[in-house]
Structure formats: structure tokens, C-alpha cells
Specification:
The chain is an alpha+beta fold and 112 residues long. The protein folds into two domains: 43 residues, no CATH class; 67 residues, DNA Binding (I), subunit A (Orthogonal Bundle). The protein is built from four helices and four strands, in the order αααββββα. The strands form two sheets. A two-stranded antiparallel sheet has the order 1-2. A two-stranded antiparallel sheet has the order 3-4. It is flat, with a radius of gyration of 17 Å. The two termini are 31 Å apart.
């Protein structure tokens, strides 16, 4: 019985046909370093958001809408990576520590 291919190890979107990577990620691995950096940047939304918040020094929690200093904010994946979420701009948001803990506890209770 033939199994369907697992998702790409890098982006998680397309089936990983080339050493567990989708065609675009496999080609990017062989691309010159400038192109590789562009593809890698597409999948580093959490890092980019953290850098933007650190540069600004503060941001609003997207859940309680209170302004916090950068050190008091955490980057949240709306759909957790462990549940198939991606590290893209549409799936990351800043949350204060309290809101992030509440959300995470709620996700964990759904799993159990």
C-alpha cells in the first residue's frame, strides 16, 4: 500500500517529493545564496515580527489591545506549528504574556 507524501519539511505546505521538500524549497536549496535568503525570509514571519517590535520598543497585544514594551510581548502562531500552522505573516501576532498563556492553556486542554 502506497502512502501519500509527507508535507515539506521547510514550508509544510506542499507534499515533500524531493528529499522531504516541495519543489520550490528543493530548488531554493540549490539556488544562489541571495535567492535562498529570500525563500528563508518568507518562512520566518515570527522572527521578522519580533525584530519590528524590538525596533519600535513597544506594540499592542492583539488580544487585549493593551500597549506593552517589547520585552513583555511574545510572538504567537495563531494556528500552532504543531497543529499544521505555518510561519507566515498571516499566522503570527504579538500577545502579552498573560494572553499567550491563556491561549496556550486553552489549546492544550483541547488536545487532552
Amino acid at each position: 500500500m502506497r502512502r501519500s507524501p509527507a508535507p515539506c519539511l521547510r514550508c509544510g505546505d506542499a507534499p515533500g517529493l524531493f528529499a522531504n521538500r516541495c519543489k520550490s524549497c528543493a530548488l531554493a536549496d540549490r539556488a544562489p545564496s541571495a535567492e535562498r535568503k529570500t525563500v528563508a525570509a518568507e518562512h520566518n514571519a515570527a522572527g521578522r515580527l519580533r525584530a519590528e517590535i524590538n525596533a519600535a520598543g513597544e506594540a499592542f497585544c492583539s488580544r487585549c489591545l493593551v500597549l506593552f514594551c517589547a520585552a513583555s510581548l511574545e510572538i504567537d502562531h495563531t494556528v500552532p506549528l504543531s497543529a499544521g500552522g505555518t510561519d507566515t505573516d498571516s499566522n503570527v501576532r504579538p500577545l502579552c504574556v498573560s494572553c499567550h498563556r491563556t491561549k496556550t492553556r486553552g489549546e492544550q486542554s483541547l488536545v487532552q
